[in-house]
User: Which sequence fits this backbone?
């Protein structure tokens, strides 16, 4: 990935964003959160876990909890979705070492957590204009997990609030 | 701020280490009050604490340490001899220091007036006399009391000193403590940096070894500032230290030419003639430390504190106080170079990486195996082999890095035993062996409480009072021995005392009183079984113990705690002779033996410690439904049964009857069965924590990575029982469980097997851990021994009974056979069996001990209509000798068997047939 992470004083997107897609929708998240991306992860399902927990992945001797992005955002689906990429996020320890930790970094887990997505897209420059998220009634998305929206040509890119996404809170009842 | 905190942490840690040595030394001092090495070591410890506390500005600590140091310096110089009261005072001072260090910020609030007053009284009441300089100096009245410009003094004892600017007062202290004085010269580039040291490090090292009185940096002559670059700068300093010249050289990494010793007596003389110029008359400065120099005393009237002191006796001023034993000093200095502090987290991630490498290696081995058959590339093979062995070594080494010597733990018992024996007015000697044996640090922490318990019991209840001992014809001084040793890949820790031992009869009557056993059971109980009673829950309470001449406060807790660590306790006691308790522990906690089971194609791990046995439900052990709950009828007991797939929320399967097994899990107060689809293998697993999203799912205690990189969740038998076993099921089970575990000690179940086509052999199931099916290809030969390699660090030694017992040898060994693996401590052997016949109940009375009297056999019995030989496992282990442990005490408790499923004599018990070959291999190679 990139080495230089320019820090701008822009309030909404202080650092670079990593774009990715899932179920045909475009998303982005703060690149500072991202540790690495796994290709074709083998997910072992875990019974009785919350619906948004797809299972566990063996990552170099460690156990990674793999979350289902769509389910987490309130789009549960009954049929299994093959996800070809897993974005691995930094742990609380990793983030503490950063000189300029990302927003909500205190919500990181001490163990590895990842997000299953379909494809990894471009890295968006730090000065990308991020608009505030539309109200929940319009988007149908759980706004706790959304930091804002980027308008890119025809489509909209949803910028995710990774700290909240990784925290333990249950999705709202009316979210779906 | 952060760096300060780090320094502070380091200071507290180092000081605690000093205190630890201090305490050990002080206790040793009690019996050897004049051991100069000990005295020196104590002095150094106190001095280091004082110095470091001063650096951080912890004045209360400095104050206390200073008085203690002063007393120690008197003791060291032979002015005083420590008696018991003094040692006790010193120990309590060291306790106070310990307290203060634990809360360094609040040290001032810890009351230590008693200690200070006590120590001060020792100081005041002692003929405090000048230790330095020699008496001859006193003859020369120091006429030249006038202040002299120090560095221009022609009378300097050493010409080299002319280079330094220093104040005489700065060396008075060193003189008083009989330290050595040196001028050290070294070229920075050629002699310091070339040794791989930075100047900074060199200086800090130097400062930690002594005091830099004065330093000087000189450029070679005729070098100007313009051309000084590239020219070596010489560093020289005037240095005070306790070290002898050759040790100093070693410590600083310099050669002896760099160091010149200055005669300290001359220096002393010189100081007399040049009293410190800054402080006016010399005496008050020195007297304030209540250690007056003899000569200044003659010049100036001594202050009152000094005046009260007795006049000097010539006898004590004699010995030169420069007798620092070089040996302990040298070893104390060597330590920091050999060890460094490492963050445990770092070690853990190293462990993880090594584990990962092993998995990668395994994959590589498989690929290499394939490519060889294709191309016959032997070069590739050798590289893979090399990587393979390096990887194993790497993993071993990192594992070892987590180990710590038990000495640290054992060390604290000297104090406990000393205090306790004083309090109880007993004479007890604590012997410690094997304190260099290493254990995982988590295990050490977990071991601390149980071991304290055992040692206290030995002191409190084991060892008799001196009068009592003499009456019994023993030495008045009792012995408690604490030892540690490596045995068969485990660590064995033993607590042994030569006290009164335990009376089986009294234990029995106590147990009957407590309702643990019935009178009838008691009458049938052997003595060694009776001793095990103290481990029974509910048997021992404080009240029950005080009137039993043994021990027993919470022995069940000790047992549970040790078992939690994956260990196991045994006890042996002879009335009137003493008691021996043996604890066996695995080397590390990170690796846990587990049973891997399958449920709907997904693997799960069950901790082996909870697994009692595996049953194939069928005609003999039917699963019945009672009021909606399932129960298993197992040898007259009804066990509640939980279906794992139901528990995990899988929809019930339509296909009527599927192959199932019931794993019988034993918890503290409940035994229940878990229905699973498959028994995969026995593996040693590394427990990994789960992320927070999964921690909320109660049934998992962690996850692990199996041989081929696949993940298995670790099931927690406790929480599975909590949610799913209804109260009615438990009630049902307990109502039918008429006999407690200890109930029937004479009738035990035996496993009948054949080594070949010949004799029927029987082994008590309580001694069997598991039965494995193996194929001849997996067997490796090491010299005359046959071994089965299980993991990279554990092997099973195969035992062919026909080689040691008078039975017919097999004509030819079958390709596939069984191994009967006994419970620990004999779990390093596997008894070869070609056929498992049956398992039946056998009463001890049924064993005919007269007809066949051979070592290794308990006797013969008629079982399943055939004469069977009953094996004596302890004797067999003894006959095997090397590599197998000494006979153990009978451990009644859990037992695990894999092969009792079928009544009919099937050649292989059904559940073992299902071991998939691929998986089995995985467990062998990992």
Assistant:
């Amino acid at each position: 990935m990139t080495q230089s992470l320019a820090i701008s004083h822009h309030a909404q997107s202080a650092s670079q964003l990593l774009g990715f897609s899932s179920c045909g929708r475009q998303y982005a998240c703060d690149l500072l959160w991202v540790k690495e991306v796994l290709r074709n992860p083998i997910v072992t399902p875990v019974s009785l876990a919350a619906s948004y927990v797809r299972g566990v992945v063996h990552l170099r001797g460690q156990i990674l909890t793999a979350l289902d992005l769509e389910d987490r955002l309130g789009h549960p689906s009954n049929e299994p979705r093959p996800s070809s990429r897993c974005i691995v996020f930094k742990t609380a320890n990793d983030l503490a070492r950063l000189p300029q930790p990302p927003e909500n970094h205190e919500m990181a887990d001490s163990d590895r957590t990842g997000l299953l997505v379909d494809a990894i897209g471009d890295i968006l420059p730090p000065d990308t204009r991020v608009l505030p998220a539309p109200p929940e009634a319009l988007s149908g998305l759980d706004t706790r997990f959304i930091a804002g929206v980027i308008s890119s040509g025809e489509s909209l890119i949803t910028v995710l609030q990774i700290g909240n996404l990784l925290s333990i809170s249950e999705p709202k009842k009316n979210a779906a | 701020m952060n760096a300060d905190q780090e320094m502070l942490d380091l200071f507290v840690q180092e000081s605690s280490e000093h205190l630890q040595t201090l305490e050990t030394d002080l206790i040793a001092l009690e019996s050897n009050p004049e051991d100069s090495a000990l005295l020196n070591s104590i002095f150094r410890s106190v001095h280091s604490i004082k110095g470091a506390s001063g650096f951080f500005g912890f004045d209360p600590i400095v104050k206390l340490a200073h008085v203690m140091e002063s007393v120690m310096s008197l003791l060291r110089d032979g002015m005083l001899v420590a008696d018991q009261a003094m040692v006790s005072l010193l120990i309590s001072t060291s306790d106070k220091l310990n307290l203060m260090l634990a809360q360094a910020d609040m040290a001032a609030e810890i009351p230590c007036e008693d200690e200070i007053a006590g120590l001060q009284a020792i100081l005041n009441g002692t003929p405090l006399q000048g230790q330095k300089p020699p008496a001859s100096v006193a003859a020369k009245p120091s006429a030249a009391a006038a202040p002299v410009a120090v560095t221009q003094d022609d009378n300097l004892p050493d010409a080299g000193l002319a280079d330094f600017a220093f104040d005489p007062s700065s060396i008075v202290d060193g003189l008083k403590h009989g330290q050595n004085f040196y001028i050290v010269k070294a070229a920075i580039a050629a002699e310091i940096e070339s040794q791989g040291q930075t100047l900074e490090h060199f200086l800090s090292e130097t400062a930690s070894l002594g005091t830099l009185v004065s330093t000087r940096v000189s450029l070679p002559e005729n070098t100007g500032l313009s051309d000084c670059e590239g020219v070596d700068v010489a560093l020289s300093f005037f240095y005070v230290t306790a070290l002898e010249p050759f040790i100093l050289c070693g410590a600083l990494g310099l050669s002896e030419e760099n160091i010149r010793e200055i005669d300290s007596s001359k220096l002393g003389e010189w100081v007399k003639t040049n009293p410190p110029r800054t402080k006016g008359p010399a005496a008050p400065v020195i007297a304030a430390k209540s250690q007056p120099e003899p000569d200044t005393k003659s010049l100036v009237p001594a202050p009152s504190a000094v005046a009260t002191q007795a006049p000097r006796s010539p006898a004590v001023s004699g010995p030169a106080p420069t007798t620092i034993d070089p040996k302990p000093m040298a070893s104390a200095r060597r330590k920091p170079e050999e060890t460094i502090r490492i963050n445990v987290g770092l070690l853990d991630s190293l462990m993880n990486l090594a584990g990962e490498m092993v998995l990668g290696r395994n994959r590589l081995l498989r690929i290499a195996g394939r490519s060889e058959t294709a191309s016959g590339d032997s070069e590739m093979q050798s590289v893979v082999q090399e990587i393979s062995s390096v990887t194993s070594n790497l993993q071993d080494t990192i594992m070892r890095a987590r180990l710590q010597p038990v000495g640290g733990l054992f060390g604290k018992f000297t104090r406990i035993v000393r205090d306790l024996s004083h309090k109880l007015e007993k004479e007890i000697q604590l012997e410690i062996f094997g304190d260099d044996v290493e254990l995982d640090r988590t295990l050490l922490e977990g071991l601390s409480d149980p071991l304290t318990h055992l040692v206290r019991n030995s002191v409190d209840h084991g060892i008799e009072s001196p009068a009592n001992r003499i009456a019994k014809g023993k030495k008045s001084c009792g012995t408690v021995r604490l030892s540690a040793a490596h045995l068969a890949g485990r660590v064995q820790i033993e607590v042994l005392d030569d006290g009164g031992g335990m009376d089986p009869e009294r234990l029995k009557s106590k147990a009957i009183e407590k309702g643990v056993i019935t009178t009838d059971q008691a009458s049938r109980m052997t003595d060694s079984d009776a001793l095990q009673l103290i481990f029974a829950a509910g048997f021992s309470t404080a009240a029950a113990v005080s009137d039993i001449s043994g021990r027993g406060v919470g022995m069940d807790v000790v047992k549970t705690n040790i078992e939690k660590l994956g260990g196991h306790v045994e006890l042996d006691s002879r009335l009137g002779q003493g008691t021996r308790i043996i604890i066996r522990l695995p080397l590390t906690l990170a690796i846990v033996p587990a049973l891997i089971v399958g449920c709907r194609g997904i693997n799960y791990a069950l901790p082996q410690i909870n697994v009692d046995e595996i049953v194939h439900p069928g005609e003999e052990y039917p699963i019945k439904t009672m009021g909606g709950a399932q129960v298993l009828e197992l040898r007259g007991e009804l066990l509640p049964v939980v279906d794992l797939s139901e528990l995990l929320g899988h929809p019930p399967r339509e296909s009527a009857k599927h192959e199932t097994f019931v794993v019988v899990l034993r918890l503290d107060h409940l035994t229940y069965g878990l229905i699973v689809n498959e028994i995969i293998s026995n593996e040693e697993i590394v427990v990994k924590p789960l992320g927070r999203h999964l921690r909320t799912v109660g049934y998992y205690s962690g996850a692990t990575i199996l041989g081929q990189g696949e993940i298995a969740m670790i099931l927690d038998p406790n929480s599975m029982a909590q949610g799913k076993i209804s109260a009615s099921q438990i009630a049902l089970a307990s109502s039918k469980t008429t006999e407690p575990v200890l109930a029937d000690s004479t009738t035990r179940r035996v496993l009948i097997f054949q080594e070949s086509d010949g004799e029927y052999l029987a082994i008590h199931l309580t001694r069997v851990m598991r039965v494995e099916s193996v194929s001849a290809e997996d067997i490796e030969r090491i010299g005359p021994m046959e071994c089965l390699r299980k993991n990279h660090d554990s092997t099973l030694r195969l035992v062919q009974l026909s080689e040691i017992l008078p039975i017919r040898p097999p004509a030819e060994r079958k390709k596939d056979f069984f191994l009967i693996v006994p419970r620990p401590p004999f779990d390093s052997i596997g008894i070869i069996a070609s056929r498992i016949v049956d398992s039946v109940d056998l009463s001890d009375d049924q064993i005919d001990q007269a007809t066949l009297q051979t070592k290794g056999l308990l006797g013969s019995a008629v079982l399943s209509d055939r004469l069977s030989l009953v094996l004596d496992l302890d004797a067999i282990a003894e006959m095997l000798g090397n590599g197998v442990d000494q006979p153990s005490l009978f451990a009644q408790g859990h037992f695990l068997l894999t092969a009792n499923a079928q009544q009919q004599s099937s050649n292989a018990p059904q559940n073992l047939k299902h071991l998939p070959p691929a998986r089995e291999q995985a467990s062998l190679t990992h």
About this structure: Chain B has a mean pLDDT of 71. Residues 766 and 895 of chain B are 5 Å apart (CA to CA). The radius of gyration of chain B is 36 Å.
